[in-house]
Fold these 2 entries.
Entry 1:
Amino acid sequence: MDALKSFLQIIVSIIAVIWSVFKSPILYTAGKITSLSARLFAWYKLLWFKVTYDKYGDFIPAKGMIMVVGTTALVLIIYAAATLVLQTGYYLATHKKEHVYLTQSEEIYPDDNIWGVRGCYTRNCDSESSLYYRIGPSLFHHIWSLSDDGNLFLPDAIGAGVPTGSTRCEVESYGIRARVLMLFHIYPRALKMVCENTAAEGAVQDLRP
């Protein structure tokens, strides 16, 4: 019990230090976001009344429906554009090619067409050399695939293309690989895998960079 209390005190102290360092920029950013959101809401409210009401103050349902559809489409476009920009930046900062031994692939979330691929830096896996990739669709992945080989990004084709058994592959991916991030289901994203048959290889090769 005392050990747990000490641990919690340490955690609280760390949080307090972090808050003292980042308090000002966090509050400043939160204030700016709140102010911008308020101005945006006020502008949209004025636009709504201007578009959906006639000069006599009567609501026009058809124009109201057009505003709802148009607003929804705009929000989706902005979200897609922001996601594309963030993913592109993440790719440029963390993109790499590496040779690894892949051992298994499976569709872990069929509804979202997301695959998990396991592997190791050595053919005989251990906890220090184990790897994990995820393959999933996104606008950025489609654009990348079209520029790479002229085809859309198909997670099924990439995931199912990993042979069974330990196979030496060149994997093109992006993302940060850290064990602590695995707690939040954050893994490197695989974009392309080129595998060869390793059954005839005799020596166990360590592929760690």
Entry 2:
Amino acid sequence: MKLATHNQIADLVRNAGKLAETGQSDPAQFAELTSWLNDCLDREAPEDVDALVQLMRAEGQPSVERYLTRMMRLVAGNQGISVDAGESQELHLLAIPLFLHPRQIDDASLPLTFLECRAELERSLEAALGLRFASLRLADFPVSAIDLEQLTMAQTRQIALNLVQQGDSPYLTPAVIDAGSSPEAAHHQSLLWPAVLRVSSEERDVQLALLAGAMRQTPELARFKHRADELLEQELHDSLGISLRADMYMPALFHNVFSLFRVIELNVMLNQSLKHFKGRCNSVSFGLFGNRLRYSLLDENAKPLMTDELRAPSESGPTISAAVRAACARNGVACTVKLSPDA
């Protein structure tokens, strides 16, 4: 049964968000919020969802706001459709983190075009994960992570349909490859490559379990990554004339991919910075301030060698802290972490 009032929904989100911070969930609350969000989509009533988001933001509870955002992406990124002969299928929106590291330094800023290697990557990834043949459809090109993060629920849901029906979507804009010079730390582009997984209702659990296996390091996935990086480097060199190194990760469901992406991006930036200042960096000072992650590399006198920041992942403080400490440990430097999400 759907909740009748805005106040009831707000109370549910507050309670469920605080519960989620402890790693727990209430199935009844999950089902009720999912039903309400789906109803808003079906009624084309984004103003109801917007009002709820604004209320949670005004209350200054980051964990609750993060929970609501994740639930909105989960509902928008998954939908059922009817196909021939009344067969029921489900569409699950995914995205693949992709980092490009230009080797040449100039002032070029070039938009990505349709990537010819897309079809080979689709079939290769299906085989590596054990997914059903032709169940995966990549968008024609990767996009800016920030652009994808700012999609509305209605736009997110439409993208999955667009990819299945026509292989493209008006809500996706090609990322721009900036080969311009960057100060001090190594330069890279942080992108996400949207995709959709189409499964029958009967095979849903099996196929999603196989997708979850993308987080494991198997020989099949290692071979896929090597081949994917090689194909992307060659095609971007041939089509755009840019020499770069590609670093493609594994796909994740839309509601999970942003937290994964931000942690990966943090590790990429930190590792590049530490490599650049190798022998000069004595420690790293790191802090979470509002929705920004900020870190400074310090010399032996605790003076900053450089400071950089990126958007905060929708991860809890302990997860962020663990990721930073692990990156510093790999590089043999000390680390101090200040987590102040409400600062």
